[in-house]
């Protein structure tokens, strides 16, 4: 199975890479040094790229070639009220979660029966004070995927939206750390793979 993990150096991305050791693994992230170390550990190939740049995203996906599984584990978190949030923060959140995903779906090459996996959020968890920008970015992503799913299904590609509970990754560092009871990245990764590799895979996987 030819697998591309985007955001591979993050907590969830690296846990997925370790679980998929032995597959034909392509790993991408912006942090080249950490990416190369992870690739050496799991026997994968490091393809550093900044997915917020469409030209870089296109070049990466051309190099990756036809995929059986694509995992978009890219994102960021932040807290700011609607009266305080800056334009840069809003644009950064939308770019990280939504624009990178749109570039990936635009330029990726898939084999018949491939899965393309993206991470949304339970609305009740994120539509709360201070998380408006994050909630909006995830909402935009989920709406886009709903339309993309119908288009790509005609090409034999299954788009899977995964909604996770809180996962104890570095995403929470700007917020003071993960909440109590957050899933370990290894457990989250195991549940994700169990779900998305089912036949047929679900359109929305809620864990």
Tell me what the structure shows.
By secondary structure, the protein is an alpha/beta fold. It has a single domain, classed as Rossmann fold (3-Layer(aba) Sandwich). It has seven helices and seven strands; from the N terminus they run E-H-E-H-E-H-E-H-E-H-H-E-H-E. The protein is globular. The chain starts with a strand and ends with a strand. The model has no long low-confidence stretch (mean pLDDT 94). Belongs to the short-chain dehydrogenases/reductases (SDR) family. It comes from Thermus tengchongensis. Keywords: Oxidoreductase.
Q: Quickly give the structural class.
A: alpha/beta
Radius of gyration: 16 Å
**Sheet with the most strands, sense and barrel status:** 7 strands, parallel
Overall morphology: globular
CATH topology: Rossmann fold
Number of helices: 7
Strand content: 15-25%
**CATH architecture heading:** 3-Layer(aba) Sandwich
InterPro entries: NAD(P)-bd_dom_sf (IPR036291), Sc_DH/Rdtase_CS (IPR020904), SDR_fam (IPR002347)
Keywords: Oxidoreductase
Family: Belongs to the short-chain dehydrogenases/reductases (SDR) family.
Protein name: SDR family NAD(P)-dependent oxidoreductase
